[in-house]
Write a structure and sequence with these properties.
By secondary structure, this protein is of the alpha/beta class. Helices cover 48% and strands 14% of the residues. A hairpin with a 3-residue loop joins β12 and β13.
Amino acid sequence: MTLFEDLKWRGLIKDVAGEDIEKKLNDEVITFYWGTDPTADSLHIGHYSSLVTAKRLYKAGHKPILLVGGATGLIGDPRPTAEREIIAFDTIAKNIEGIKNQIDKIFDGNAELVNNYDWTKEMDLITFLRDVGKYININYMLDKDIIRRRLETGITFAEFTYTLMQGYDFLHLFEEKNCIMQVEGSDQWGNITTGIDLIYKKTGKKAYAFTMPLILDANGNKFGKSEGNALWLDINKTSSYELYQYLINSDDSKVEEYLKVFTFLPKEEIERIMKEHLEAPHLRIAQKALTKEFITDLHGSLEYEKAQKMSEVLFSGNVNDLSADEIEICFKGVPNFEITEEVTLIDMLVNNNIVSSRREAREFLNSNAITLNGNTVTDENMIINSDIAIDNKVIVIRRGKKKYFLGIIK
């Protein structure tokens, strides 16, 4: 397949600007850009689908420019429902640094990084209105989907001009770096076409673009922090283990799409994986392939192997094979409590609401339903202290089959 055919097969092309874009991508070496505003100090999995697409173009020989919106981030891209909160200058700077490090790692230092604050900070209002605002009709802006939807609830002038700022970014990169194409998620189509229109009106030349469909989870929600389900690309915010657990539990209805979007596996390999998966869905062959490719590409093979080991150990119940630090990652989010002094087992269970009463504690103990660090315990007078803790730091308590608690020795 050609590059364009591969992108279409993977479902990565939604909107297209430029009737000869296929020829440009297949037969020429072009410079293109993808951008994001630094609203957090890390990108998330919602961004990653676009980054992987940009990396496909790079691997095919095209030249990527990755734009971090130090200027547009200070304004905020209009949301469908309400205005974004204004972000402080120092927060923007911190966020940019985190994002730049991630992009540099993903592209092995081979993508040019730019910040639109660098070419807008010296531009005065009069110049902006003459060089940008003069060329874009107000009716054209009102017809943008996101602006039209916000007119009912109200939109500030700052948000209203966001599309002009992003359009000017495209013009600047077109003129200064011969960047002829923009590649974004489909929610940016209105801003992209503003840039294409501005380029044509100011230079008489043609620019290109394509958008990718937004990647949704099985419930139809976007992968983004505003949706409350962000999986961060920063390993310190979302561990490889957490990413592993999410991906390995991907819904069967979405896993083929995720394999196409998030991995560099060729068409033949994905089709083979899906054939085997459909023959034995309970083996989760497709999810395993997705998890391995995704984590290895993002964080490296060692992180994938570490996450896989942690998952297998937890499934077997042999938590003693994990370090205290690994356990704290695995059980992030489960109820936890501190143990500051020696205490009997039954008192620990009752005092930390693992059971509702001493009577219930004895019922669980007598039915072998309580484990400490994977070992069944029955003696209610057993002493709990650092001697029995993993690395003298943590104790994993399981009540019944699935209810976990974490005791932390202090």
